[in-house]
Amino acid sequence: MYQYTAFDTQFVKQRAAQFRDQLTRWQTGKLSEDDFRPLRLQNGWYVQRYAPMLRVAVPYGEIASRQLRVLAQIAREYDEPEAAVFKAAMEGQGKLGTTFLPTHCAHFTTRTNVQFNWIPLSKSADVMDLLASVNMHGIQTSGNCIRNTTTDALAGIAVDEIVDPRPYAELIRQWSTLHPEFAFLPRKFKIAITGAKDDRAATGWHDVGLHLVKNDAGEIGFKVFVGGGMGRTPVIGTVIREFLPWNQIMNYIEAIVRVYNEHGRRDNKYKARIKILVKSEGQQYIDDVEAEYRQILEIDGGPHTIPQTEFDRVAACFVAPKLADIADVAPEALQAQLDAQAAGHVMFGRWLQRNVHPHQNPQLRAVTLSFKRPGQSPGDATSEQLIALADLVDKYSAGEARVTHDQNVLLPWVHASRLFDLWQEAKALGLASANVQLLTDMIACPGGDFCALANARSLPIAEAITQRYQDLDELDDIGEIDLHISGCINSCGHHHSGHIGILGVDKDGKEWYQVTLGGSDGSELSGAAVAGKVIGPSFSAAEVPDVIEAVLNTYRDLRESGETFQNTVRRTGLDPFKEAAKQARHKEETETAAA
Amino acid sequence: MMLKLLAAQDHQPPAEGDTRAVALPNDADALALPLDGVERVDLHFPNFTDGRAFSQAFLLRRRRGFAGEIRATGDVLIDQLVQMQRTGFSSAVLREGVDAADAQRQFELFPGFYQGDAVNPQPLFAAKAA
């Protein structure tokens, strides 16, 4: 992991002090509500349906055990609604059928951050100080600024990796942090980097997507995409540069963002993302960026060209940790041991197959701990689970974990000889569901139970589908599939990129759900990034699990040998799925919908 | 260069026909503005969340080397003063009723920044290497 310097540490502490100053001025009436809002947002503080929400930055997903322990402390001591707030929330959501709202827990997000749902604003500055004590913060986790850069959860360890993206992600973190010119952009701005053959970072869906590549001469550079995004107008990023030398990345992003800051629309927030500018201007935007980039180099002198020494300093933080107490074992012997353990324990074998990933170091494996299980929302972790997680991270993964885009936690440094012990401990904690990349390993936003923007609840839908699909044999038979659920068109649950997407919509004050098929995040499994297509008028909450089941049964009927859901949908088209979904409508609700 | 803070009553918009002071709308191209004989450019924040003037200030000060006054006008929030200074503004017109001590305190928060800017073009890593 990146090791914070004295400067980095002090910087985060001063940011917390600045936030306390702003909070105090708001509390004493010196700062109006409208003035405070953008300032608190840029520190991760939203005010949601019933309570504030805090989004804590986890830069490119890397998190240390000591940071997990502080998140556990925040969950335990601060993620507690005031009685009146909780009562109002339970009454309000109870009318819709919600019977349970989790408290004292953290939530892992698709942009590898961590959210809390109940911390009162009056305690917010104390929480920021606590976070700063372990170099954590909420800097630019919201607001119209450059957000947390995300990357592949397998960065630095993936067997298909071309270049480790983490040092670049860290350099971009530093460059973008409190950038004086780019804090009040037309709209939010998200960057994702991948350095592997398989794009596990959904780069096509970001404002800027970066692919680390090597040219024919073996030099490292970036293929740069710009103008991807979800929301009302899903757009896949356009290639703006086939090869940008690695040390120019900050100068080039500066050009991209400056042209956007000057020309992005500010009259309509739904048209303010860079994707709209890139779409409307086309080649003109690309020409403008190239012209601006040349001027940055030729007139400004390209001050943010990364020197090799600085790259080396940052990259040195990302060397693999030494697992001192474990001797190397011949890879064949390790595999034989795992095979024997799997033969003796069927569930371990399944977990090995689904949740354990190969590693650049043949001694090691990466392990996904699944935070997708019945009774808890996707990506939620209680304070107790966070503590237990921190212990596992210390014991099995050199103190380092990764928050994944799929809302799980990955342990990157597990010795193969210790997988069985880890599995047993994770199982006891309920973190060993062998469902990674299967239907129940779904992405879901917090939805209408928490979020003020949501049109409908996401979590009860997620729970209903999870409950229905608890048979691992059935899940295995359905195979690898991305189910993504968003409570509104803002698309935090990435419904556009789901093989099956579920989108909450509001009709006449009631919750309805649109179902899309065939969306892709751009990974090898999913195919080229594309938004899913709607399969008919929206469904009621009660209908959704039946519709999903009908869609899945249609796939199982139609698939050819070994064909994934995604490939079947692409081969057959939507018609058979539309028909099946239509048949799954409930009679009564069909009449109501038609009325 | 320290940012000069002006009270609202101390600010006069450029008079008509005054060639030494110019008010540049925030959708204008800062690279196209004629600067001969210009001593002051007023940049405008119609709302403090509209950040276009930060880029205009940077381009005037750094790209074009304008040495005169760049003044922030309109909806100026004291929490943006440091950003204004860093992007090349030399003065800012405060809203009415702002506590001067609150404004001054903004400059004492951070010991340094990561990026280069219009005033200190070199980023932190270059300063450390020097």
Characterization of the model:
The complex is a heterodimer of chains A (595) and B (130). In chain A, strands 16, 17, 18, 19, 20 and 21 form a 6-stranded mixed β-sheet that branches. Chain A has a 5-stranded antiparallel β-sheet with strand order 1-2-5-4-13. In chain A, strands 3-14-15-12-11 form a 5-stranded antiparallel β-sheet. With 595 residues, chain A is α+β, with helices and mostly antiparallel strands. In chain A, a hairpin with a 5-residue loop joins strand 14 and strand 15. Chain B has 130 residues and is α/β, with parallel strands linked by helices. Chain B has a single domain, classed as TIM Barrel, CATH 3.20.20. Chain B is built from 4 helices and 5 strands; from the N terminus they run βββαβαβαα. In chain B, helix 1 packs parallel to helix 2. The longest helix of chain B is centred in the middle third of the chain and has 12 residues. The two termini of chain B are 22 Å apart. The mean pLDDT of chain B is 95. Classes of the chains: A alpha+beta (595), B alpha/beta (130). The interface between A and B is large, with 40 and 38 residues.
Q: How do you describe this structure in short?
A:
The complex is a heterodimer of chains A (595) and B (130). With 595 residues, chain A is an alpha+beta fold.
Label this structure with key terms:
heterodimer; A: alpha+beta; Alpha-Beta Plaits; Sulfite Reductase Hemoprotein, domain 1; Sulfite Reductase Hemoprotein, domain 2; 4 domains; six-stranded mixed beta sheet; B: 130 residues; alpha/beta; TIM Barrel; 17% strand
**For the report, how would you describe the main beta sheet of chain A?**
6 strands, mixed
Bin the helical content of chain B. Answer: 10-25%
Give the termini separation of chain B. 22 Å
Shape of chain A: globular
User: How many β-strands of chain A, per DSSP?
Assistant: 21
